[in-house]
Amino acid sequence: MTYSKFLTLLAAMAGSICAFTASASGHSRLLESPFSPGDSLSVPTDSLRSKTTATLADTSRQMLSPEELALMVEIVPNEPDDVIADRLSCLESDIPLVYNDFVRNFIDYFTIRNRKYTRTMLTRENVYFPLFEKYLRKHNMPDELKYLAIVESGLNPLAQSPVGAAGLWQFMKPTGREYGLHQTQYIDERLDPEKSTEAAMLFLRRLHKYYGDWELALAAYNCGQGNVNKAIRKAGGKRSFWDIFPYLPRETRGYVPSMTAVRYAMHYAGEHNIFSDSILYQPEVAYLEVTQELELERLAAELHLTPEELLALNPELKKSTIPGNKYKLRVPSSRATLLATAEDQSCILLAAAPAPLQQNTLAQAPVLLASAKTEAPAEKETPIKTTKVTYTVQRGDNLISIARRHDVTVEQLKEWNNLHNSYITANQKLQIMQQGPATTAILASSNQTKPDSRSAVEKKELIHHVQPGDTLWQISRKYDGISVEQIKKLNKLKSNNLKPGQKLILS
């Protein structure tokens, strides 16, 4: 074995050992800084061979696992500078791809010292890159900006930095609010992949408009416009990243070079023998508009999912309670059939509501109220007898409509039929405990009442309690003989908007 081959093998072994323990974190999400403490552009004086010798000496006494042994025999190419520079020049880019010793240190970090991190990015890129590309096209911005999320968060929507930045694009709380990312007791939209991506594009576009240079815009995204402007003044008014480089904060000095290194590592991973064991893809989703507070576990059960599956699609949720106010919840598209109609959605929303809200909603079923000027005493009621009735589910039925039809509650139907959720199918048999007929109160005018100057007129008042998903048109069809305009006139409505629980007079 020649001396050069021996040195390459030692470098590969050292790089593999370092890669096994290295990880990405911090505000720029890179734990290990691949540049020297002096932050100069010169190559560190200690050679790769001396580092390798020290590393092997430290690890020679340790017992290596089978996985570590497998990594040690992995071939880790150590490409010369001219090859890497040539590869970078072949990449089409609107953002300059400067190559120097400082950038080379970052490239070695992603291709030698932390190969595991690059493998993870290859696994995740197909989950988020299509989303990033969609918004980059929308705002007519360079496609390569999608790699910024790797530097910021490692493509982890739940990433949190020690200083409070969060999400794929690492927004601080004030900046997030400035760009419309709501933060409440229920949600933190900095963790919402789609909304945070839109906000990041707006922020980067504004910075580029201010500086007219993408490298300076990226630097300002990391450390703020104030620090970049201060560095420009110290550099005598020069307005390029490498001119103001010595005057920038330490972390920002590595920010743009790491972006270049990430682009190189992702494009040429195969040339460095870096491959992903598995590839993840963006899931197909449908949206459920939530109009009232829901319990996450109840909703997951109704959709035949686990709470973890729902949280994975909605990382912005902070609690097990889903907020109302027309919140759009992502659900797997495979569950869209359970939400096909407004009535299906209403049924699932009711079943997933907190227990007290369920009882209140059921108590608000449409009722017929009758009143008269005089009322005779009610006849004596016959004893109530309970009988078991078998009901065959028809197409379009749901537990709410069946419960109303038989004057029972949804919870009773579930208990009598051992149902764990609100899902029923056509022709399914349901057992219903039905009470026997009870004598109703008779309304009549009393013969003993003295005649009034005005004739006694019997009044009937029909009231409908609005349910989630109800519209004026649906209500008018349900109650024959009344139009939408009549409903609006009777209730002095100025628009067609309705709220669940609202009372509508229909006659």
UniProtKB/TrEMBL annotation:
List the GO molecular function terms: peptidoglycan lytic transglycosylase activity
Of which family is this protein a member? Belongs to the transglycosylase Slt family.
Q: Which UniProt keywords apply?
A: Signal
Superkingdom: Bacteria
Q: What CDD domains does this protein's entry cite?
A: LysM (cd00118), MltD-like (cd16894)
- Name assigned to this protein: Lytic transglycosylase
Q: Does the keyword Zinc apply?
A: no
Which first-to-last residue range defines the signal peptide? 1-24
Q: What is the lineage of its organism?
A: Bacteria, Pseudomonadati, Bacteroidota, Cytophagia, Cytophagales
An example GO CC term for this entry is:
membrane
Domain LysM: from-to ranges: 389-432, 462-506
